[in-house]
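I'll show a typical protein example:
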Amino acid sequence: LQECILSGIMSVNGKKVLHMDRNSYYGGESASITPLEDLYKRFNLPGTPPESMGRGRDWNVDLIPKFLMANGQLVKMLLYTEVTRYLDFKVIEGSFVYKGGKIYKVPSTEAEALASSLMGLFEKRRFRKFLVYVANFDENDSRTLEGVDPKKTTMRDVYKKFDLGQDVIDFTGHALALYRTDDYLDQPCQETINRIKLYSESLARYGKSPYLYPLYGLGELPQGFARLSAIYGGTYMLNKPIEEIVIENGKVVGVKSEGEVARCKQLICDPSYVSDRVTKVGQVIRVICILSHPIKNTNDANSCQIIIPQNQVNRKSGTGCCPGALGVVTRGNGHLLPAPGDLWGLLGGDRDSSAGAPALPPLQIFISRTYDATTHFETTCDDIKDIYKRMMGSEFDFEEMKRKKNDIYGEEEQQ
């Protein structure tokens, strides 16, 4: 996905782009597998899908399920480039949190906080005051800070200020701020408060939840940006084997494929193409579970996210999400999550999580990061902005992504 978005942006900016993929489908590790028969083949499942599962073509199963925050960076990228014209989205019906063996709706508004059974009456009042404080929080206006220093006061101290209990701290940190661990508690509060504001602002856009999801799976996203690149003169090749990255005098000069060399001045790739230049920083275990029924206590939601705070399963890390009507995915950093109640059946599957070592400027190879265990695309967008800055020598600017209205490609597309 990072490579597809960057190829789209570079094409809009007038760069000459050749995009090659060794796979027969768009998106690489973040692809959506369809039909269902291909999913069976990918995971070496015996036989074929039973008839009760319907037509194989009706299935799009994401290998790395994530959501889009409705007010987040990826949605801005889609809007600015107008890639939204190629995609249809749906709003995820709800976000839930796991506590004491049960699932509860995540309270993210004053009304929901007052109605939630997650908290007692007095806790609700304190949490409501906290949400109002966060909504009004402006680091440039001391009147809204109430004595809190955004760059020095820890989040633990902010929770103490509002006298919030451990259960409220758990779902605020993991289900609203969407942290994977509790390390954030002893860090300056500014980042956490901004995360909660993003959640609330995203929720305000559509009401049911702060999350959006492409109607036909996440594989639609890389296809959309690849099409954007093509509209502005970029060339995309699927099923294109990569034999060698050609380096001369300490600088990339091309890519060899099927005996030919495509010359280039800069190269963007994911870690699998340059395994000798990246460092493994962890491992994410992902599990895809296909259910024949809605999940209990979710009001029979067709789509939802379920967050499992680490304290609830006695783990150092871990979150979980249900990205679709019949899919449940649990994630953890290096730990397989225990099965809470009768929710999770377990199917195997894991992927390495590698971090691209920043390329030395003379080499001009820019390596994206593999996908972490977060349930949304904000860190993916941070990676895109980082690569852009290292390639272009300037800060990423959303305005630079806007379609150039006078471009011949843009005009032809609009006609």
